[in-house]
Structure formats: C-alpha cells, structure tokens
UniProtKB/TrEMBL annotation:
Keywords: DNA-binding, Transcription, Transcription regulation. The keyword Lipoprotein does not apply. This is TetR family transcriptional regulator. The keyword Transcription applies. One of its GO terms (molecular function) is DNA-binding transcription factor activity. It comes from Demequina activiva.
C-alpha cells in the first residue's frame, strides 16, 4: 500500500493510480478526510474523482484492495533457514506498511477485512511453506496445521502495525517487535526469536 509517483493521462485527465496514491497519502494521516482533500492531493477536481469512483467509500475500497494485491505480488521467500525466511518476509512487509500504518489499521477495522485477507492468501501460503519446513523439536510449532500457524503470524504483524497507528508501539522499535512477535507466534522462544530478529536486521541493513 505504499505510494507511487502520480501520473496523468495524455488527455489531461487524472490517472487511476494518481487518485489512489493520493488517497493513501491523505488517509494515512487523516482516515476521515473528505474526498475533496484527496482530489486536491491528486491535483484534480473532485468531479473528476467522482467520475472514476461514485463515492468516497468506493475510492477507499479500491485503494485498500490495490494495496493488498501489491503486497501479495511483491512477497517472496528469500534464502536462509525457515525462521529467518519468515523474519525477512515480515521485515519487508513492515518496511512497506509502517509508513501507512494508520491506513492499514483502518482497513483492518472495516467491512473489507475478509476480502483483504483473501487477497493476502499468497503471503499466507509462503509463510505456511516456511513453517512446514521448519516445524519440529527446537524449531517452529507443529501442533497446528502450517496454514493455521501462518494465519497467527500474519495477525501478529497486523497487530503490531495497528499498535503503531494507535500510538501503543513506538515506530522506531515496531519492526523488531513485529519480527519477534511473528516468530513467537510461529513457535520460537522469545530469546531465539530475538536472535533471529538480530540476524534479519543485519541482512536488511546490508541490503
């Protein structure tokens, strides 16, 4: 749900992406902002925005679903052991979502939550694959199906993002908390999760 560069069509009209980018930028700061403010951010007239989206809610819904699809398409499993792979995936998602945490919190509490979770299924599948490979004594939990553990991991990250949006979690420590919380949900002890998080942070810093 990160922002891209606004683009205008050759005919002078505003592009869909420009409007959606503006919606993320505005709603991340002020979830209740009116459509007129979003139009101003996009550099266009509210009537042009309404020609693309019949209502403010339709615009918000389109913005949310575009963001969910982007996360799903960008998610990959990197090299390393299963726990480190999970930590890296969480770190990449955090880098993408933390700047727009209020927007993420907004859709988590909206009627779109089930639809967004469906769009994020590819991410959950990657997590489940890593969990399945790492399950066993001394590793990730094996008392539940890998798909269920993946759901727990996903929601651990979303909980931390909501915490940043609500001010309960400090933004500068949120990523590490998200990684350790996700790995704890996957079955690691808190100290093992911390060691993996440190390794992940070193990799991300050197990327």
């Amino acid at each position: 749900m990160r922002l891209g560069r606004s683009r205008r069509r050759e005919d002078g009209g505003v592009s869909l992406d420009a409007v959606l980018d503006a919606a993320v930028a505005v709603l991340s700061r002020e979830p209740g902002a009116p459509l007129e403010r979003i139009a101003a951010r996009a550099g266009t007239d509210p009537r042009q925005v309404r020609a693309l989206y019949p209502s403010r809610q339709a615009l918000v819904d389109a913005t949310v679903m575009r963001g969910a699809r982007r996360i799903a398409h960008a998610a990959v499993i990197e090299d390393g052991g299963p726990a480190e792979q999970i930590g890296l995936l969480v770190a990449r998602i955090w880098e993408d979502q933390a700047p727009v945490a209020p927007f993420t919190a907004m859709w988590m509490r909206s009627h779109l939550r089930a639809e967004v979770e469906g769009a994020l299924e590819p991410v959950r599948a990657l997590l489940a694959d890593a969990i399945g490979r790492g399950a066993g004594p001394g590793g990730l939990r094996a008392d539940l199906p890998a798909s269920s553990v993946a759901w727990l991991v996903e929601h651990a990250v979303l909980t931390c993002l909501t915490g940043v949006a609500d001010g309960a979690v400090a933004a500068d420590t949120g990523r590490r908390l998200a990684i350790t919380h996700a790995l704890a949900a996957a079955g690691l002890s808190w100290d093992h999760a911390g060691d993996v998080a440190t390794a992940v942070e070193h990799r991300v810093a050197g990327a």
